[in-house]
Amino acid sequence: AYITAASLLIIADGGGSNGYRLRLWKVELQKLADEIGRPISVSHLPPGTSKWNKIEHRLFSFITQNWRGKPLITHQVIVNLIASTTTKNGLKVSCELDTRSYAKGRRVTDKELDAVNLVPDDFHGEWNYTILPTTSAEAIG
């Protein structure tokens, strides 16, 4: 949708599978940066602040209101209920089921992590950083 964008910004929660400490998260983001040929900047919400996560409040609250009282008996029912979520202010949600299998317990080696072209931000570089594509000499603007 944003094919002309010069970069991508991800605002991520501080925990879960996209936590700022997770090595696999950074290795996979490097793959994406290389694939799209653009820098990916990441800003993690500090620990304990997810209650202020705007996505949770502006999206998830409407999803749960939409499926309130409905039995969530299959994946397809859940996907349909999420995808049919709208608001009078124009929120439209799209959703699809990911049926791929993912390996569990994958360990990222120091060598793999060292290959991530990560530039920490001056302000809390552990939570805020940019991953540059390794396929070109992108510079942070």
What's this, in brief?
The chain is an alpha+beta fold. It has helices spanning 23-36, 54-66, 75-83, 110-114, and strands at 8-12, 40-44, 118-120, 128-131.
pLDDT average, as an integer? Answer: 86
Radius of gyration: 18 Å
Query: Which residue ranges are poorly predicted, with pLDDT under 50 across at least 5 consecutive positions?
Result: 137-141
Strand order of the largest sheet: 1-2-4-3
- Overall strand count: 4
- Which series of helices and strands comes N to C? EHEHHHEE
**What coarse outline follows from CA principal-axis ratios?**
globular
Number of helical stretches of at least 4 residues: 4
Range of strand content: 5-15%
Class by SSE composition: alpha+beta
Please describe the biggest sheet, giving its number of strands, its sense, and whether it closes into a barrel.
4 strands, mixed
End-to-end span in angstroms?
Answer: 22 Å
Amount of helix: 25-40%
Task: Write up this protein.
Helix content is 29%, strand content 12%. It contains four helices and four strands. The protein has a four-stranded mixed beta sheet. α1 links the parallel β1 (8-12) and β2 (40-44). Mean pLDDT is 86; it is low at 137-141.
